[in-house]
Amino acid sequence: MKLRVDRERCISAGMCVLTAPDVFDQDTEDGRVVPLDLAPAPEREGAVREAAQVCPSGAITVISGD
User: How far does the chain reach from its first CA to its final CA, in angstroms?
Assistant: First the structure.
């Protein structure tokens, strides 16, 4: 699994950080998403997929496969 994050689309809601704090953070200046890991480990897949689903702006895309 890989991630694509669109910081321009992010509205700084912080749902990703609440859902998957090991994978996402927020920029201290503008509050936008900061990916900590663009290829998270398989054990984080559930939380990462949930974070993408709950993102109100659709700024996180999960790419399946290698």
Answer: 6
